[in-house]
Structure formats: structure tokens, C-alpha cells
Design brief:
Blueprint lengths: L7 H12 L1 H7 L10 E4 L4 E3 L13 E4 L2 H6 L3 E2 L10 H21 L6 H8 L3 H12 L3 H17 L7 H7 L5 H12 L3 H5 L6 E9 L2 E7 L4 E7 L2 H11 L4 E4 L2 H15 L15 H11 L7 E2 H7 L6 H10 L11 E2 L12 H18 L6 H6 L1
Parallel strand pairs: 2-4, 5-8, 9-10
Antiparallel strand pairs: 1-2, 1-3, 5-6, 6-7
Helix pairs in contact: 4-5, 4-6, 4-7, 5-6, 7-8, 13-15, 14-15
Length: 384
Amino acid sequence: MPRRTPSPRAQQAAALTQADPRWAAVVARSPAADGQFWYSVQTTGVYCRPSCAARAPRPENVRFHASCDAAEQAGFRPCQRCRPRQASAQSHHATLVADACRLLDDGLAAGRAPTLQALAERVGLSASHLHRVFKQATGLTPRAYAAARRAEAVRSALGDPGTGSVTDAIYGAGYPSSSRFYEQSGQLLGMAPAHYRAGGVAQDIRYAVAPCSLGQVLVAQSDKGICAILLGDDAPALAHDLQRRFARARLQPGDATFAEQVAQVVALVEAPGLGLALPLDVRGTAFQQRVWQALQAIPPGQTASYAEIAQRIGAPTAVRAVAQACAANALAVAVPCHRVVKSDGGLSGYRWGVERKRALLRREADDAAADGSAAPTAATESAA
């Protein structure tokens, strides 16, 4: 029997619901939306949390509510499947993960972080279950979280004049041996520990500012590679930003040889799809580096949402943390945070200005269309 065509009124109601961003969360059964709103279904008389596993309702029958009380005052009863008045599984897991983080911090402060098995026993989960929900909530495994906290502690200790020797800082941060730390110090600090303690005073960084079609671009290079690509309108302001990032490093104007590298970066800004053949000195936390690696995997002419990046790095609930990692990126275009857009394809904030983001996406879309390598995405179409 053919399905009856919805009335014009039902079609209008469906269109209004589908235009609401909350509808996408209902269709996706998004746990991240739990607690932000609830929805009711007129044909069943019940209301649910967004992550409810029940069959998706027809959009014309859906209404959204700011609270359980509001849904019940409108005449709906709680769903017996998702039990919207009870704490969600995500909320319960968040509490357990917070407890696990506290136990890890306490263990590091005492000089030894608990093992995954010991941690799981303390919070009442199996080791595999804890590993999974911890990574979903934080974007890191418990081991990576402990490593990041150790690195944070040693950076803080090295920057504190009251700390004794570098060795004291290393052991005080919970490293079992100084050799283990020194194996990782280049990645964690970007320089030798003694140099870091001196505020980078022994580190030489060459830089230059050049004009480009997006304004001014500052390019800075350490002995490991390009460590900053900053966009702006004012050369002195860009130099001040670089000075703030490398507080007491020796900043030196680039020579004629360095001008060739700057020219390559300018060429990248003008044609982002070309890529950059120069080595990069990428500095960030473990989570930030995972995000930035995912950004570099987005092909020119294409985009991905913050939620998609969170999924790709195995942390689907860490959408806000992904956005923060994009904002912390200091290598404009080379680490293409301009290719990350909102879930609806719209352009969100960009640390160097939304208009620059729009221009970069337009260039990539035009280049991709010219060589047929990629079809325009919703975001690139909205940028045109």
C-alpha cells in the first residue's frame, strides 16, 4: 500500500524540524547532546533524550524541550527505553573518568601512576571498558593522559626558579628515570631541558615577514624546521606574537637563504593545494598533535567538521577540545585548520580571521575544480 502523502501542514512542520540543528543530533543519536535538550513525539506521547536508541520519529511529529519538566508540562511522559530523567551512560562515564583522572594525578604526585588494571579496579570497570570510555571522554588513553600530565608538570617545574636542578624537576614530575625523560625531551619541550629552563634563551629562531594576498605572513624557523606561520595585517603585531610564543629565544632576522623558505611559504598561502616541502617543527600536547595530524590528512579542496575530526582521532565526544586544538595551531595553512568547518558546512572562527579562511577555501575549491580532483563540499560552496 503506497504511503500517504503528508499534508502541507505536516510538510511545513517537518521542514521546520529538519532546519533545527537539534534534529541532526536526534538522527545521529548523539550522546554529546544528552542534557542539552529533550525531544517528544506526538504520535507516541513520550519524550526522549537525543541518544535514545528507538526508531527515529518522523520530523513533523517531533517537538524540542529545554528540560524534562517542560516536556512533561506539555503532556508527554518519559520514554521507558532511554529513561530521560536518569543520568545518561555518558554522564556516568564522565564521573568515572573524572575519578580516574584524579587517581592518576594523585599517583603521579606520589611518584608512580597506577597501572590500567589497578585504575580499573578502583573505579569499578574492566580494564578494556575503562580504556575505551577514558579515550572517548578525553581523547587520550590513560597512559597518554599520564604522560601529558608528567610533561605538563616538568614544564612547570623547569619554569619555576624555586625548583632545584633539572634532575629534581624530572623526578618531581613523576618520571621513573632521567634517561626516559631525555629520550622524549625534544618532542615534549622542543629543545634541551636546560635551554627550556632558561626560557629558550639559548635557542636561535630566524624569522621574516612578507606580504601576501591575505595581508602579511610571518615565517619563523628553529633548527628543527618551520615553527610558526602567522597571518595578520600588521608586521610588528606578528613579531610581538612570535616573541610571546618564544619568550626569551634569540629572534634573528632571516638572511638571503632564509628568504627562499619564506617564498615557499608565501607560495603555499597563494596556492594551499601545493603543499610545503619544508620540514615543520610542530609543538603541542599529545592530543593537539593527533588533531593536527588529522587536519593534514584532509585533501585540498575538501573540508571536515569538528565532529568528524573528533571521530577520526577516536574521541567522538571531544569536539570542543578539537576546536581548541585548531585554535592553538601556530602553523597556518601548513597545518590546515582552515579546512575544518561547522557540522552544517558553515564557517566558524579562525584565529587569523574568517575572511582569510573563506579565501583559502575558495582557492582550494577553484584549484580542485580546475583539475577535477575534488568536488566542492558544502563548506567550499558557502565560501564562494
